[in-house]
């Protein structure tokens, strides 16, 4: 999986927006993998960069976060390079696609992932 | 500190003795320190991924349990009398990572078990690692002080 | 009788009638394992502490020596011994269990020969009939006192040496006539403290070499003997670096020794493949090798006359941390085989 986007409540408009966000993230040249789940309230965006850019990951995360804020000012987007967030997001995408999770639950799951990301050491 | 000037006789002897002295193999030491230290880090990375995959830790938070596990491993190796042999072989490679800190603590604790728990283990456990803690904390203080002042000036 | 500056000649020829030598696990794997009377396969020797194990080594070595001499402890008039631990406690505690009038002596690793010289001197002048003397060290106890905990993973440089775990004791007698075939102590040269400004505690051989050379030089100066008189001149624990340095120093002073004639106990005791860096050290290095291995060779007739030069680095953990230099000392004792000569 190089890129994937999913939404918690599937209607055409939501999906369209999620795809746009994903494309916006992928437009950065450092991006290798992007995983994105858009819920009604908030969105989680996890990414991985090409290995040679790893040392600049913090900076890339900051840039991407600002870029997303500019392009989608109405959305609340959490951007993270953390491997655990990437892992959890892609797991959630699988669940949504296989239909084993309800919209409500997916929304909650997004909240959990965002809280995990904000956890300090 | 007593450091009197060497007499000519002593200087001459020093020169003579140097001819016979076996030098530390610096390049070999650097090389082994590099790859053994690297190996320790590979193990540490594997443990980090273990915690990320199977537990609820992020890359940021997984470092704490990883460090604890590495120290635990080094303590087990010290207890079984293996770590000092690794140390003789790898030098800085096994002393610099956090496992070296664990080794310094536990080796002193084992050593002074014979003097009892309070006066032996308790008071001697940090006799090697104590200065690491002291100067670690002190240098962190100095660095953060400098950073605070600079960022205050820099606005 | 004093001869020259710093040498005693023992005209009454006190005899070394028996020896007892004990060792630890590392020595058991060494080259001279069969020359030990008792070897332990554990550094703790089933005791509660390294210091107690140290004491056990001494007690067992003395016991073995007494048994071989066929004597009881009541027959012994003096006990002269020492080790490297603070306040000589292992030796003091061992002396407590024997109840023999006791001299505790310290010359670091030169203690063995200091004891032998003093014992021979007392016997030579008829002030005792039997004396037990010797020295001991214990790797664990010494390492923790002078360096780091035994399990600490610090890297030792190639100049470092390995402290011998063991004890070597000898019973000496003034009744030369009763022991016509035993080796005798014929001379001793008492060394001066020499400090050549070396201060690396991980290079004791380099620090001690001048003291050894000085004492050997004084010995030949005082006695007027030719270096070729001795089949073997053996140092206590100079190690690789100290030995070759001492050899060069002696050559500069005009004493030419062959490689074969000039040996070091610290290089004899272990095998090449044992990880001891520059060689062995410790008070037991000279004591075990001389009283175990070399006297056996002498009794077999492989050696007729040898000069034993034990070297000691008189440092303490405190003086090392205070950046002091390392003063060193060496004592030389000549042991000879003079079978059949009756008095």
Poorly predicted ranges of chain B (pLDDT <50, ≥5 residues)? none
Strand order across the largest sheet of chain A = 1-2-3-4
Find the structural class of chain A using helix and strand composition. alpha/beta
**Helix content, binned percent of chain A:** 40-55%
Span of the ends, CA to CA of chain A: 30 Å
Number of domains of chain B: 1
Biggest sheet overview of chain A: 4 strands, mixed
What percentage of the residues of chain A does DSSP assign to strands (E)? 15-25%
Going by helix content, strand content and strand pairing, the class of chain B is mainly alpha
Give the oligomer, counting copies of the same chain as homo and different chains as hetero. Answer: heterotrimer
Q: Let me know the average pLDDT of chain B.
A: 91
Domains counted in the coordinates of chain A: how many?
1
Q: Assign an overall shape of chain B.
A: extended
CATH C-level class of chain A is Alpha Beta
Find the count of extended strands of chain B (DSSP E, 2+ residues): 0
C-alpha Rg of chain B, in Å?
21 Å
Distance between the termini of chain B: 45 Å
- Fill in the CATH topology of chain A: Alpha-Beta Plaits
Topology:
The complex is a heterotrimer of chains A (121), B (155) and C (343).
Chain A: E1 3-7, H1 12-26, E2 31-38, E3 43-49, H2 57-71, E4 77-80, H3 83-98, H4 103-118
Parallel strand pairs in A: 1-2, 3-4
Antiparallel strand pairs in A: 2-3
Chain B: H1 8-20, H2 26-54, H3 63-79, H4 83-90, H5 92-95, H6 98-111, H7 117-124, H8 129-153
Chain C: E1 2-3, E2 7-9, E3 15-23, H1 25-28, E4 38-39, H2 50-69, E5 78-82, H3 89-98, E6 102-104, H4 111-124, E7 130-137, H5 139-146, E8 162-163, E9 166-173, E10 184-189, H6 204-223, E11 232-235, H7 239-252, E12 262-264, H8 265-268, E13 280-281, H9 283-300, E14 305-313, H10 317-321, E15 328-336
Parallel strand pairs in C: 3-4, 5-6, 5-7, 8-13, 11-12, 11-14
Antiparallel strand pairs in C: 1-2, 2-10, 3-9, 7-9, 10-15, 14-15
């Amino acid at each position: 999986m190089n890129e994937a986007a999913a939404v918690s409540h599937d209607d055409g408009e939501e999906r369209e927006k999620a795809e746009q966000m994903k494309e916006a993230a992928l437009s950065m040249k450092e991006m290798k993998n992007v995983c994105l789940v858009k819920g009604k309230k908030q969105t989680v965006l996890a990414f991985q960069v090409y290995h040679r850019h790893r040392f600049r990951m913090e900076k890339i995360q900051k840039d991407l976060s600002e870029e997303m804020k500019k392009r989608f000012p109405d959305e609340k987007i959490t951007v993270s390079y953390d491997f655990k967030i990437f892992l959890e997001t892609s797991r959630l995408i699988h669940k949504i696609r296989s239909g084993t999770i309800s919209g409500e639950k997916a929304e909650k799951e997004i909240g959990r992932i965002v809280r995990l990301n904000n956890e300090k050491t | 500190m007593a450091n009197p000037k060497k007499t000519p006789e002593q200087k001459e002897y020093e020169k003579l003795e140097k001819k016979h002295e076996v030098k530390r193999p610096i390049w070999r030491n650097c090389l082994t320190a590099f790859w053994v230290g690297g190996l320790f880090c590979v193990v540490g990375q594997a443990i980090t991924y273990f915690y990320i995959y199977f537990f609820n830790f992020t890359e940021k938070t997984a470092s704490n349990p990883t460090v604890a596990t590495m120290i635990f491993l080094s303590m087990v190796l010290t207890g079984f009398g293996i770590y000092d042999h690794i140390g003789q072989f790898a030098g800085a490679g096994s002393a610099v990572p956090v496992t070296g800190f664990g080794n310094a603590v536990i080796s002193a604790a084992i050593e002074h078990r014979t003097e009892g728990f309070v006066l032996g283990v308790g008071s001697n456990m940090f006799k090697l690692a104590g200065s690491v803690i002291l100067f670690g904390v002190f240098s962190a203080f100095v660095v953060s002080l400098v950073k605070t002042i600079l960022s205050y000036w820099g606005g | 009788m004093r001869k020259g500056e710093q040498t005693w000649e023992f005209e009454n020829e006190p005899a070394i009638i028996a020896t007892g030598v004990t060792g630890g696990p590392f020595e058991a794997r060494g080259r001279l394992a069969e020359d030990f009377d008792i070897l332990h396969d554990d550094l703790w020797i089933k005791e509660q502490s390294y210091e107690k194990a140290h004491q056990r080594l001494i007690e067992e070595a003395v016991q073995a020596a007494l048994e071989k001499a066929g004597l009881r402890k009541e027959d012994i008039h003096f006990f002269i011994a020492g080790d490297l631990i603070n306040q000589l406690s292992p030796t003091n505690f061992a002396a407590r269990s024997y109840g023999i009038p006791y001299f505790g002596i310290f010359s670091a690793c030169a203690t063995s020969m200091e004891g032998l010289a003093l014992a021979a001197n007392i016997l030579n002048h008829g002030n005792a009939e039997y004396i037990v003397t010797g020295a001991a060290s214990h790797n664990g106890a010494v390492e923790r006192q002078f360096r780091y905990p035994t399990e600490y993973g610090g890297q030792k440089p190639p100049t470092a040496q390995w402290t011998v775990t063991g004890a070597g004791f000898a019973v000496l007698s003034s009744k030369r006539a009763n022991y016509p075939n035993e080796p005798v102590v014929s001379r001793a040269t008492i060394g001066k403290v020499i400090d050549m400004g070396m201060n690396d505690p991980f290079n004791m051989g380099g620090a001690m070499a001048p003291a050894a050379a000085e004492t050997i030089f004084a010995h030949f100066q005082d006695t007027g003997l030719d270096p070729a008189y001795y089949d073997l001149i053996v140092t206590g624990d100079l190690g690789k670096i100290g030995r070759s340095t001492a050899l060069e120093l002696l050559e500069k002073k005009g004493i030419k020794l062959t490689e074969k004639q000039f040996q070091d106990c610290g290089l004899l005791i272990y095998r090449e493949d044992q990880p001891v860096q520059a060689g062995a050290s410790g008070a037991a290095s000279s004591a075990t090798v001389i009283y175990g291995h070399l006297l056996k060779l002498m009794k077999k007739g492989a050696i007729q006359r040898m000069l034993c030069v034990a070297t000691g680095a008189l440092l303490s953990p405190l003086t090392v941390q205070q950046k002091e230099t390392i003063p060193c000392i060496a004592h030389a004792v000549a042991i000879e085989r003079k079978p059949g000569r009756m008095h």
